[in-house]
Amino acid sequence: MNEERLKELWEQLQEIVLDYGLDVLGALATLIIGAWVIRKVVKTTGKRLAKTSMEPMIIPTIKGVIKIALWAALILAIVKQVGIETSGFIAVFGAAGLAVGLALQGSLANFAGGILLLTLKPFKAGDFVEINGQSGSVHGVSMINTTLKTPDNKTIYLPNGAVAGGNITNFTLEPKRRWDKVFGIGYGDDFDKAKKIIMDFLEADERVHKDPVPFVRVGNLGDSSVDITVRAWVDTAEYWNVNFDMIEKVKKEFDKQGISIPFPQRDVHIYNEK
Predict the structure, then answer these.
(1) Would you call 233 helix, strand, or coil by DSSP?
(2) Does any domain span residue 265?
């Protein structure tokens, strides 16, 4: 009885091998060859992208997406090859993808924002920018967030979704920048003399561009001062040096020439009523 049972099992095993053995071997061969092809495709894609002007930080992400897509296609092909219905697998993959997408909605928005930033390149590492009210030098851009370093060495992490959808001001993108300043003098002071002092400093400074000609005019009559508006073009790299030097020079020369720089004042009148 046992021998008959073993013989029956052996015959069933032979039938299974004959029916599915070739499919299993074919699936195994497909897996080995497919893995080799995927590795070659991903490697070749990375090399070609590296030769383009694409941001280097985005290349690993693109390679990862291509690798996942190819492996998903390979698995579906193997499943179909062994005779299993693929519609069920596709439904499972779709449901899993939907669940993951809903769970990681914010992260996916940041990921998409990172792709957009690395593709459009509104700034690069080292640029001084203002993003949604936060200012600093760009320290790096990952796929999730953008890192800024403030002048006082603080680190700010901004989610890429908000960065890509927000307002970005890049102060160092252009090679030159206009220096705008307002100097207030007293109403009793000689504003022509004050204008000449400022213009002389601008013309003598080699860092200040002479074309276009610096602009020095009375721009406003304030409550406590006559405001002199100054506009001059400088190299972006020299902007802050010119700013601090010019303020210091003008202040010292105004003091020497007896030109006052007023500050807001309030007159208080006291009446003695009997």
Answers:
(1) strand
(2) no
Residue with tokens 């579906």: 76
Give the predicted TM-score (pTM) of the model.
0.59
Tokens of 237: 């790299």
Question: Rounded distance, CA 216 to CA 222, Å?
Answer: 17
**Class of residue 75 by CB neighbours under 10 A (exposed 0-12, middle 13-18, buried 19+):** middle
d(CA 97, CA 19): 34
Q: In sequence order, what DSSP letters do the residues of 93-136 get, joined into one string?
A: HHHHHHHHHHHTHHHHHHHHHHHHHHHH-S--TT-EEEETTEEE
The 8-class DSSP code of residue 156 comes to: E
pLDDT tens-digit map of 173-229: 899 999 999 999 999 999 999 999 999 999 999 999 999 999 999 999 988 899 999
Residue 27 counted as domain residue: yes
Q: Are 259 and 185 in contact (CB under 8 A)?
A: yes
Spatial separation of the C-alpha atoms in residues 127 and 148, rounded to whole Å = 10
CA-derived radius of gyration, the chain:
36
Q: Give yes or no: residues 191 and 214 share one domain.
A: yes
130 beta partners: 135, 169
- The reply to whether 78 and 126 lie within a common domain is no
Q: How far apart are CA 8 and CA 12, in angstroms?
A: 6
